[in-house]
Every structure is written in structure tokens, then in C-alpha cells.
Design a protein that fits this description.
This protein is of the alpha+beta class. It is built from eight helices and ten strands. The protein has a six-stranded antiparallel beta sheet with strand order 8-7-6-5-9-10. Strands 1-4-2-3 form a four-stranded antiparallel beta sheet, covered by helices on one side. Helix 1 packs antiparallel against helix 2 and helix 3 crosses helix 8. The two termini are 29 Å apart.
Length: 291
């Protein structure tokens, strides 16, 4: 997309975010991201089908699955408590947080969106007033307004305080994100912090790396060793995804123990085509919906 066309769509997206319908906003944002129109009448590609699910299937009634506190009940029902991180507390407001009672390391996660997290590695060296202001900013937002994912519209904002998780050999946890269709994991999206930024790549279920057609700036060119418990992670993802057309099951593996991260119904908000071009059609073909 050339410069002036991009500027036009940026202005259009900003305007529609304030005054447009959900569909108008999403169609403009999709065009800006991909330089191609979003087809909702006859969805073919992966992201097109995600947006179809957004508008016609995954409604506000699915909110418990993206609420970071409520989803724990679903995970416990499917798997038991063994894959859930330890909770220190859950709070309705920043003012309720009792930092004095927390350990020196902990994770703060707002329950109603994605990325609303603060990791405290050393409480004694952390400016807790700054942390409070950051949390207040998160708590004031409705994540639905960011990308118009209806599933987030009525999630109750709360603050979940969890045990701090680290890895034996690294300060940065590796995210293993399983793309699952009708309860069957099909692809693994791996994300971690490397070389100064968060980077990502794809692996198949045999742990063979799938390279993009063009190397993008966030591509993880480092090879990640195959997790020893990969088969167990695949089984976990299968159980957690069994009730959905598509869901991304995010897991961690720390010291060979699996922890549940979250369920994500719209990878990259369903707005950005995958960097491995053939996967857009291949994954789209697997999702059995029709308009």
C-alpha cells in the first residue's frame, strides 16, 4: 500500500473507530493491514473466517472464555487444577491491592483484555505508584473498543495476582500458541523475547519450522528446541479446544511443567493475514463455516 493510500485508510480507521459500526471499522482496519478487502459474504481465508466467527458466532456470551479469572473454571473442568498457575489474589480495583502481603516477585494481570499485564520481578526495587497508575489505565479501558472483538465487550475488569513464573535458563518465557480447529491442534505459533524484541515463528506438530515467504522484522530466526513435553501440550490443547470452531490455546512449559496461559479466539485480532501465505488458505479451508 503506497503512502497516500495508507494515510487515507489510517484516517478512515480512526474516524470509524469513533463513529462507525463494528463491521465498518473492521473492514477498514483489515484493508489497512492487508491491502485487500475483507470478504464476509463468502469467507475463504483464515482471518476472514475469524471475522465471520466474530460477527456471527463468538458473541458476548463467550466472555467467560477470555476472562482471565473465569476461564480458570473451564480449564479446571477439562483438565483439573494441575495446569493452572497459583493465584495470590483477585481484586476489583487497584485500591484493593495489598502490595505489602505480596511476595517479592509476582504477576499482575487485568482480566478483561490482552496485554494488560505488569510483571514485578523485584518488589523492593519497583516503583509501586507507577505500577498502580499503569493498572488504573488498563482498568479504565474496554478492550472491545480496540478491535471490536465482541467477545470482550462485557468482561468484568478485575486484577488477577499470580505467582511469578520464570525459566531455568532465560528471563523470558516462551509462549507456545496452538492453533486448534474443532478440537484438533494444527499449528504452533511460538513467541518469545529475543535480540531486543518480541519475535515469532511457526512450527508444525512434528516440530518442524515453517518459514515465511518473506522474512519479516519480527521473525524469530533462532531455532527453539523441541519441548520434551510437546505431546502433552498437544493433548492439553486438544481438550481445551474441543468445543470451538477455532481457538488458539496458549501454553507455557517451564522446567518441563505445563501452565495454561489463555484462550484466544481471534489471532492478532483477526485483522492480520499470516506471514506464511499458504497458511491463510490452508487454515481457512479447515474451519467449517459458510456464510
Amino acid at each position: 500500500m503506497h503512502f497516500f493510500k495508507r494515510k487515507y485508510y489510517q484516517l478512515k480507521v480512526n474516524y470509524l473507530n469513533q463513529f462507525g459500526t463494528d463491521k465498518q471499522f473492521v473492514k477498514a482496519a483489515y484493508k489497512l493491514k492487508n491491502d485487500k478487502p475483507l470478504n464476509l459474504n463468502k469467507p475463504i481465508e483464515f482471518t476472514e473466517k475469524l471475522q465471520w466467527l466474530n460477527f456471527y458466532k463468538y458473541s458476548e456470551d463467550y466472555k467467560m472464555y477470555v476472562d482471565k479469572y473465569e476461564v480458570r473454571s473451564y480449564v479446571e473442568k477439562k483438565l483439573g487444577k494441575g495446569y493452572l498457575n497459583e493465584i495470590i489474589g483477585v481484586y476489583d480495583a487497584v485500591e484493593d491491592l495489598d502490595f505489602k502481603s505480596f511476595p517479592n516477585q509476582f504477576a499482575l494481570k487485568c482480566t478483561h483484555g490482552s496485554g494488560y499485564n505488569v510483571i514485578v520481578k523485584d518488589k523492593k526495587a519497583t516503583d509501586l505508584e507507577v505500577v498502580k497508575q499503569q493498572l488504573k489505565s488498563f482498568m479504565s479501558r474496554n478492550y472491545y473498543n480496540k478491535y471490536r472483538e465482541r467477545i470482550y465487550k462485557h468482561v468484568q475488569p478485575r486484577i488477577l495476582v499470580e505467582k511469578y513464573l520464570d525459566q531455568l535458563e532465560s528471563d523470558y518465557i516462551i509462549d507456545y500458541k496452538f492453533f486448534c480447529v474443532n478440537g484438533k491442534p494444527k499449528l504452533i505459533y511460538v513467541k518469545t523475547f529475543y535480540d531486543g524484541a518480541y519475535r515469532n515463528c511457526y512450527y508444525n506438530l512434528n516440530w518442524e519450522k515453517i518459514c515465511p515467504d518473506l522474512i519479516h522484522k519480527n521473525y524469530l530466526n533462532k531455532d527453539i528446541p523441541k519441548p520434551e513435553n510437546l505431546n502433552e501440550m498437544i493433548a492439553v490443547a486438544e481438550k481445551l479446544s474441543s468445543e470451538f470452531y477455532f481457538v488458539r490455546v496458549d501454553l507455557y512449559s517451564i522446567k518441563n511443567k505445563i501452565y495454561f496461559g489463555e484462550l484466544t479466539f481471534f489471532h492478532l485480532a483477526g485483522l492480520q493475514r499470516l506471514t506464511v501465505d499458504r497458511l491463510n488458505k490452508e487454515l481457512g479451508d479447515l474451519i467449517p463455516i459458510s456464510a
